[in-house]
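Running this now, will post back.
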Amino acid sequence: MSLIAKETADSSRDPLPAGPQIGICYSIVDLGTHAGDYQGKPTKRHKVNICFELPGVQIETDKGPMPGAKSTTQTLSLNEKASLRKVLESWRGRPFTPVELQGFDLSGILAKPATVNIMHNDKGGDYIGSIMPPMPNVPIPKAVNEPYIYSLDTPGENWDRIPNWAKEEIKQSLEWSKVKDFVPSEDGHPAGAPAAPADNQDDVPF
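Update: finished.
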């Protein structure tokens, strides 16, 4: 199972501190394809959510202090003007080669470190302004969250690990109506094993 890419404020919490943070990619969630329109023309966008654990930001949870997290949702495309392509090229510090543009497996970014720049908007929310390579000689803490991938190719695997908002968005996707033999569980137990963590100490992110 893999995700191949080719050529809003949360009012329930305080905003994350603005500025650069060490981030470790711990989840990649396939949100499916969604119909819409642009300038009066129908569109279809296959979306993916990429979430980072932020070890330098601690938040209080019912399980005790945990690292903060922030995600970005992108269209699954590496076309010249695609935002995902710009994000990944900024993160890795170099452009994609023509061969890579023919099909880049997003699982390669799982558990990889980055410098995540958190910004604030005028509504009091936060968002990821940019993603860059990790700073040289800056130690990367060990991640707390087990990294995982959710794909609609295997809808039962890791379903119970994804956030509720993502589940609702997935249920609105064009792929969801074609999902067979899967009933989302309501017991909260993990539906699949997490992906094996990668070495996040590499000089080059991916």
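DSSP finds three helices and eight strands in the chain. More later if anyone needs it.
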